[in-house]
Amino acid sequence: MALKILSVDDELDLELLLSQYFRRKIRKGEYEFFFAHNGIEALQTLLNHPDIDIILSDINMPEMDGLTLLKKIKDRNNPALKVIMVSAYGEMGNIREAMNNGAFDFATKPIDLDDLERTIEKAREEIAFIKNTQKEHGQLVDIKADLSLAAEVQQAILPRRFPPFADLAGVIDIFATMHPAKDVGGDFYDIFRIDDDHIGIAMADVSGKGVPAALFMTMSHTLLRFTGQRCLDPVTTVSETNDMLARESFDSMFVTVFYGVYNTSDGTMTFVNGGHNPPYILHADGSVTTVAESPELCLGVMEDYPYVSHTIRLEKGDVFVAFTDGVTEACSAGNTLYGDEKLENILKTLQGRSAEEITQAIDADVARHAEGAEQSDDITLLSLRRL
Questions:
Q1: DSSP run (H or E) holding 195
Q2: How far apart are CA 379 and CA 150, in angstroms?
Q3: How far, in Å, CA of 317 to CA of 351, rounded?
Q4: pLDDT digits over 332-374, tens only?
Q5: How much is the pLDDT for 146?
Q6: pLDDT value, residue 139
Q7: Alpha-carbon span 26 to 29, nearest angstrom
Q8: Distance between CA 268 and CA 38 in Å, rounded?
Q9: In angstroms, what is the C-alpha Rg of the chain?
Q10: Looking at residue 160, what is its pLDDT?
C-alpha cells in the first residue's frame, strides 16, 4: 500500500517540487501525496483521509501555524501518525519546541530532498513497526476476550447450584469449587443423578495447562457424564471413557479421575481411582482417614485397561473430601508445598462443619499458605457430607 503523505505549506511551489522529485515513487504507487496550505486545511484533509501516515508541515503558516497543528494532531492519540516539521534554520527554537511536543523529525529550508526521502523512509519503518504492534495487540485483546468467554463456558458446564438435588437436601450435603490457574483450566468435578438412589461423583485433572487442557477437560467431562448417567458400575463407566479418550487423545494427553457411585440410601460409594490423588474422609468423631486403595492407570493412556472398583461407606456425619493436586502442590512464596499433612491438619479442625464451610476453609488455608505467590495449578475441591 502507498505511504500517504500530507504536505502542509503555504508556499505553492513546494507542491510542484515534491511532485516532481518523488514522481517515480508516486507512479509506482509507493507514495501518495496530499496538499494543504495551512493547519485548518490540514485538519480537514485528515478528517477526509484518516489513513494518512506522515504529515510534512511548515511551522510558519497563516490561520493555523504548524506548532498549533502539531498539538491538534497530538490530541488525536495516533502513535502511527508521524509529523516531520519544516522551518528555516534560524528558527531552531520553534523546531526544539516541535520536537518536545512529539514531532518525529525535522527538515530545514531550503529542503534537501535526498535527506527528506531518507527521513520519510525512516518514518515508514517506524510506522510499520507501530502498526504491526497495534495489530498484535488487537489480536491479543481478541484472544483474551475469547479466553474469558471460554472460561465462562467451562465454569457453566460444572454444577454450581448446591444442593444440586432438592429432594436429597436432608440426605446429603455437597459443595465444590474450581479455581483455574489460567483463564481456562484442566480440572473438573461433576455431580449427577443416575437414579433415585445413586449419584455419580467425579474429580479429575487433565495433564497440561491452558487451552489444550481445557479442550481435553471438556471432552473428558462430557464422556464421563454421558457413560456414567446410564450405568451404575463405575468400572464400566471409567473403562468406556478411558477407551474413547485413548482413541481420540492428542499430544499424548491424559486425565486422572476419581469416579464414584454414591448410594444415598446406605452411604456406600463404589469407586475407581484412575491415577488420582486419594480422597480423605473426615469422620463424625473428628478423625481423618485416606481412601487408601492404590490409584490405577490414568485415563487416555491405554485402551482396555482392567480397572478395579472398591467400596467405602460413609457413616452419618462423615464427610468425603476429593481434591486435585493443585491443593497439595500449592507453593508458597518461599517455595514450600502445601502438602498432604497440612490438608489433613486443617480437616481435623472442621468436624461438624457443612460441606460448603469445609471446602471454603481448605481454599482459604491454601491461599494463606501461598502468601500471594502466583497460582501454578488449578485448585479444585469437592466435599460430600452424609446427613
A1: strand 187-195
A2: 18
A3: 9
A4: 988 899 999 999 999 999 999 999 999 999 999 999 999 888 8
A5: 63
A6: 80
A7: 5
A8: 87
A9: 34
A10: 85
Which residue type sits at 183?
D
Q: How far apart are CA 323 and CA 351, in angstroms?
A: 18
Asked if residues 81 and 52 have their Cβ atoms less than 8 Å apart, the reply is yes
Quick count: other Cβ atoms within 10 Å of Cβ 162?
17
Q: Which residue has the cell 488449578?
A: 378
> What residues does 257 pair with on adjacent strands?
204, 274
The answer to whether the CB of 299 falls within 8 A of the CB of 238 is yes
* Res 76: pLDDT: 82
Q: Specify the pLDDT at position 1.
A: 81
- Total residue length of the chain: 387
Intervals of the chain under pLDDT 70: 89-90, 143, 145-155, 183-184
Q: Residue 334: exposed, middle, or buried by beta-carbon count in 10 A (0-12, 13-18, 19+)?
A: exposed
The DSSP 8-state label assigned to residue 315 in this structure reads P
Is the CB of residue 54 less than 8 Å from the CB of residue 3?
A: yes
At 23, which helix (H) or strand (E)? helix 23-27
Residue type, 61: M
Task: Report, in this order, helix, strand and coil percent for the chain, each rounded to 5.
Answer: 40, 25, 35
